[in-house]
Amino acid sequence: MSRHAQKLRDHGINPCVAETDATTKCLNENNYKKDMCTAYFLKYKNCRKFWHAIMMQRRRNGVKPEMPSADERKKILESVGKPY
Q1: Shortest CA distance to 83 belongs to which of 37, 10, 8, 19?
Q2: How far apart are CA 64 and CA 17, in angstroms?
Q3: Hey, what's the torsion of the CAs at 5, 6, 10, 13, to 10 degrees?
Q4: To 5 degrees, how large is the angle CA 71–CA 73–CA 77?
Q5: Concatenated DSSP letters for the chain?
Q6: What is the largest distance, in Å, between two alpha-carbon atoms of the chain?
Q7: CA end-to-end span of the chain, whole Å?
Q8: What is the spatial distance between Cα 45 and Cα 41, in angstroms, rounded to a whole number?
Q9: Which residues neighbour 71 within 8 Å (Cβ) at sequence distance 6 or greater?
Q10: How confident is the model over 7-25, as pLDDT tens digits?
C-alpha cells in the first residue's frame, strides 16, 4: 500500500474513514451503480464539509494541529451530535 493510501486509511488523519468504507461497500454490493449509493455519497460529502469547516476555523484561530486528533474529534461529535 502506498504512503498516500496509508494516510487515507489512518483514523488519526482522515475523519471520514467510516463513510469512505460504507461508500465503497455499497458500490461493491451494487455492481458500481452510483445511483444506488447516493445516500452514502452525500454522507461522505457532508462529513468532508464538516471537518473542513472545523479545520479552517482552527487555522483562522491559530490552533495547531489544524485537524483535531481522533480523540478531539470524538468529543466534538459527542457535543454536537453527528451532523452528517
Answers
A1: 19
A2: 22
A3: -70
A4: 120
A5: --HHHHHHH-TTT-TTHHHHHHHHHHHHHTTT-GGGGHHHHHHHHHHHHHHHHHHHHHHHHT-SSSSPPHHHHHHHHHHH----
A6: 45
A7: 29
A8: 6
A9: none
A10: 778 888 899 999 999 999 9
The residue among 81 and 46 whose pLDDT is bigger is: 46
Cell reading at 18: 467510516
In this structure, the number of other CB atoms found within 10 A of the CB of residue 10 comes to: 11
Smallest CA-to-CA distance from 37 within 25, 47, 49, 46 is with 25
Residue 46 corresponds to which cell in the numbers above?
A: 457532508
Predicted TM-score (pTM) of the model is 0.86
